[in-house]
Amino acid sequence: MDIINTSGRRKTAVARIYMKAGNGNITVNGRSYKEYFPTGTLQYLVEQPFHVLNQDIKYDIKVNLNGGGITGQAEALRLAISKALCEINPEHRHELKDVGLLRRDPRMVERKKPGQPKARKRFQFSKR
């Protein structure tokens, strides 16, 4: 198996990964993913594709993350890992798709409109 290159996105976060056979090292922007994502919830998001397939992390993954916040970055990384696992073995596609890991979440921040303080909030109305 050679190096597999995929990308995943969520909100404004972009994750570009390089996956190859190895012993489970996930490096995010030059740091360990457990250091980069300090909470257990975010670490679970990164590991979720492997949990769904009931397999250990037996790949070395080098990740370049930029844009967005920490949650969006974790979800972008989850999508990229899922896509890479499908490239390795197309039979995994059905299991990952049933859980919803191969779908890009299309929700984005709504833009601010002129004449309003935020996207939907209005200034206080005064009748007189």
Describe it for me?
- The chain has 128 residues and is of the alpha+beta class.
- It has a single domain (4-99), classed as Ribosomal Protein S5, domain 2 (2-Layer Sandwich).
- Helices cover 34% and strands 23% of the residues.
- It has 4 helices and 5 strands, in the order ββββααβαα.
- The chain has a 5-stranded mixed β-sheet with strand order 1-2-5-3-4.
- A hairpin with a 2-residue loop joins β3 and β4.
- α2 runs parallel beside α3.
- The chain is elongated and about 70 Å long.
- The N and C termini lie far apart (73 Å).
- The model has no long low-confidence stretch (mean pLDDT 95).
What tags apply to this protein structure?
alpha+beta, 4 helices, 5-stranded mixed β-sheet, 128 residues, 5 strands, Ribosomal Protein S5, domain 2, 34% helix
As for the CATH topology, it is: Ribosomal Protein S5, domain 2
The description of the largest β-sheet is: 5 strands, mixed
Helix content: 25-40%
State the secondary-structure class: alpha+beta
The general outline is elongated
Which spans of ≥5 residues are poorly predicted at pLDDT below 50? none
Mean pLDDT across every amino acid position: 95
Can you count the helices?
4
Strand order of the largest sheet: 1-2-5-3-4
| CATH class division | Alpha Beta
